């Protein structure tokens, strides 16, 4: 779905977001999305490492 957007589509989405949310709110939203993704990746890594530890324990 997102592979067909391209550069012009991304620019249009950013312009619309800037118009809707304003220049003050947009950086805050971007920071919040970045923090959320970072936490999600951290949790995913912890879950996969836990499952890998469980597999190693069952093999022993």
TrEMBL record:
Part of the twin-arginine translocation (Tat) system that transports large folded proteins containing a characteristic twin-arginine motif in their signal peptide across membranes. TatA could form the protein-conducting channel of the Tat system. Pfam families: TatA_B_E (PF02416). Keywords: Cell membrane, Membrane, Protein transport, Translocation, Transmembrane, Transmembrane helix, Transport. Belongs to the TatA/E family. The keyword Iron-sulfur does not apply. It comes from the Bacteria. This is Sec-independent protein translocase protein TatA. It is found in: Cell membrane. Forms a complex with TatC. PANTHER family: SEC-INDEPENDENT PROTEIN TRANSLOCASE PROTEIN TATA. InterPro entries: TatA/B/E, TatA/E. One of its GO terms (molecular function) is protein transmembrane transporter activity. It is a single-pass membrane protein. The chain crosses the membrane at residues 6-22. Its main location: membrane. Gene3D superfamilies: 1.20.5.3310. One of its GO terms (cellular component) is TAT protein transport complex. GO terms for biological process: protein transport by the Tat complex.
